[in-house]
Amino acid sequence: MNARETLSKHPRLGMGAAILFVLVAIASFVLQTRGRAAPSEGNAKAFFTVDDGQTWFTDDLTNLAPFEKDGKQAVRAFVFRCSDGNQFVGYLQRFTPDAKRAIEKINTPDPNRTEPPDVSGVRMAYTVGREVKRPGDKKWTSGADGPKSAQIISIKCPNGGGEAVAVEP
Prior knowledge:
Layout: H1 3-9, H2 11-33, E1 45-49, E2 57-60, E3 67-69, E4 72-81, E5 87-95, H3 97-107, H4 120-127, E6 130-133, E7 141-142, H5 146-153, E8 165-166
């Protein structure tokens, strides 16, 4: 007797198997996600540098670069790791003064605001007002220059070491 015949003669057996399958799936999901909490807004971190990526430090992700850190200008540093374990700054990011003001304005609570904030300006700030460069480069590239900025943020390991993997603080 094959499985189809068995299930035809004993429908409760099929229903029991389906319920068991669902319970196992739920238990698997619960076990995999247990203990994992999304970082709260107050403790999300990012890497920053004050020396063009030679060294880096962690600070609050809500800091918009550039900002003042110990008397020096800090910018966001995107750190990567190669298969050999070597970590390096792949590229740096900052915002133009106008873009930074637009982002800060929408993130600042305003009890007198009667309409929803205009997010189109923030979208523009995150694209056109974002500047990137690789450590050692003299010139920053605007996010408005899509092909060039995409080339800068496409990171490979030095010396043909393959794909680089982003590192989170």
